[in-house]
Known about the structure:
Layout: E1 5-9, H1 14-25, E2 29-34, H2 42-51, E3 57-60, H3 66-80, E4 85-88, H4 103-131, E5 134-139, H5 143-146, H6 152-172, E6 177-184, H7 190-193, H8 197-205, H9 215-226, E7 237-240
Parallel strand pairs: 1-2, 1-4, 2-3, 4-5, 5-6, 6-7
Amino acid sequence: MAGRLALITGGNGGIGTAVVRQLAADGYRVVTTCLDAEAERIDAWRQQLREEGVEVDYVVCNVADFASCQKMAEEVEQTYGPVDVLVNLAGITRDTFLHKMGAEDWDAVLDVNLDSVFNVTRQIVPGMRDRGFGRIVNVSSVNGQTGQFGQANYSAAKAGMHGFTMALAKENARKGIAVNTVSPGYVNTSMTAAIPDDIREQIIAQIPAGRMAEVEEVARVIRFLVADENGYITGANIPVNGGLFCSF
């Protein structure tokens, strides 16, 4: 486990930062992707983590573009070595009811949230197969399981992500590659902090646990799934939603 290279797409967000901290603490070398280093203030983010004793590198990549992902994968391998762990975390929202949704809002969400999973994983999985080891975690959402008002695009993308997980898990199980999905519910991030208090209270009232998740709770599940010892768990969808949606 120590010294393995972990690539996280969109790792500078709330959940992503927690995953970076967790994997770095476990001895992984961590690289994240970003679309625009200056706009996303990546250097300031890295400096803050460095002050905590967490080292993370980054590579610029448009995960919605296949050619950009090819270039990114080549750069990562040449600079840091082969990727042992891949966490597909990049995502956006463009919420509106379907009868008001433009094609650009549908395309943008499917491109970043679902096509990116193919674009990035396609570059990484051949090397994992050659080496006989790999861990892939695709971060979906409870709304991919339940649907959500105003999120036909997002819910479709997140549901599709788990279909991808199941197929990839079956294709690669004999190659030592475990592929799983994590589906968080509502998580305490800057995004949910911006929700008006009355709406936030309504959301929490629906959650049996009576609160939103902390980002560390999601990161710990990802940490568990990518461990060397967990090769027999594959094709699963692990909920982290406080009981908001239960299934078997």
